[in-house]
Write a structure and sequence with these properties.
heterodimer, A: 226 residues, alpha/beta, L,D-transpeptidase catalytic domain-like, B: alpha+beta, 2 helices, 38% helix, peptidoglycan L,D-transpeptidase activity (chain A), LD-transpeptidase (chain A)
């Protein structure tokens, strides 16, 4: 219990500053959702949780555009940088020669999206998940893990986690794996960036602590520092 | 007669091969898209990089916060820069056409 209060106290300055920064974000606050093309009807449909689950059950993976692939990426950012396009649900890992590895991701649901410039502060394999205090208070299932759920296949952080820091302090946001691989392409998280376990393992093997992470999301609250 | 038949066979194979090549060379169509149109992430960051150079601002304080398509081959990117704002227009080939503080 003390640990939870200690965590709240540690994050308090960040929690206080976030609404202030949100006020500096642009006025148009909208979180773009994914649409999927149906070649049979030749129409685009909203890719919501129901459709994503149905697609995953049928194909055993997310749509092709969300599969890991090397793409052209014209950037001045140095190799090793991570760029997250929250609007299109892509994460780019910058490679040399104007290329990047593109991964499909799930991002924050309405009101939980954010944009900013942070860095990878630490990394963990099969990380422990500690539910936030408010989740502990309202959810008996989460309450039993108030002191941390050990890493493993049922842990919502999945196989790997990269902890995002700003100014040497934990931002409370992470790039992590998931137990819900069907959720790639959705606005579904509490602000964390989720990837299928195979992809997060691949990214984890490439990313170094200290790597710059740029998060783009139109209309989202700006995170500390920008 | 035999030569004529083989000629037709070669022409048929060439026609099929050309057809197949035509299919495989076409650009794959996207299976998903965003409900809203924003500039590609690399173009947004090229604008941020140019703003850092042109205005001498710390790159950690510059972030694209909004973007939209303007015409068929250019995008407008809105930047925040440590309390200030700028608007960048960039072509889909990555050339910054204009960049101004607002």
């Amino acid at each position: 219990m003390f640990e939870v209060f200690a965590r709240i106290r540690r994050f308090l300055p960040l929690l206080l500053v976030l609404p202030l920064l949100a006020g500096t974000a642009i006025a148009v606050a909208q979180t773009f959702k994914t649409q999927i093309y149906d070649p049979e009807t030749r129409k685009w449909y909203n890719y919501d949780q129901k459709r994503a689950l149905k697609y995953y059950r049928k194909h055993g993976q997310a749509p092709a555009d969300f599969q890991r692939q090397v793409v052209t990426f014209r950037t001045a950012e140095k190799p090793g940088t991570i760029i997250i396009d929250g609007d299109k649900h892509f994460l780019y890992y910058v490679l040399p020669n104007f290329q990047a590895i593109r991964y499909g991701i799930g991002v924050g649901r309405d009101g939980f999206g954010w944009a900013g410039i942070v860095e990878v502060g630490r990394k963990a394999e099969w990380p422990t998940w500690t539910p936030p205090a408010e989740m502990v208070a309202r959810d008996p299932n989460a309450a039993k893990y108030a002191n941390g759920m050990p890493g493993g296949p049922d842990n919502p952080l999945g196989a790997r986690a990269m902890y995002l820091y700003v100014g040497g302090q934990d931002s409370i946001y992470r790039i992590h794996g998931t137990t819900q691989p069907w959720s790639i392409g959705l606005n579904i998280s509490s602000g964390c960036i989720r990837m299928v376990n195979e992809d997060v393992i691949d990214l984890y093997s490439r990313v170094e602590v200290g790597a710059r992470v740029i998060v783009l999301m139109q209309g989202a609250a700006l995170y500390k520092g920008v | 007669m035999t030569e004529s038949k083989s000629g037709w066979a070669v022409a048929l194979v060439a026609f099929v091969a050309l057809g197949l090549t035509g299919c495989t060379a076409s650009k794959p169509q996207p299976t998903v898209r965003s409900a809203g149109t924003t500039a590609p992430a690399d173009l947004q960051l090229l604008c941020a990089s140019e703003a850092s150079t042109r205005f001498g601002a710390n790159r950690d304080t510059i972030l694209p916060v909004s973007s939209s398509q303007e015409g068929s081959n250019r995008y407008r990117v809105d930047l925040t820069m440590a309390g200030e704002s700028a608007v960048c227009v960039i072509s889909d080939t990555g050339i910054v056409e204009s960049l101004q503080k607002v």
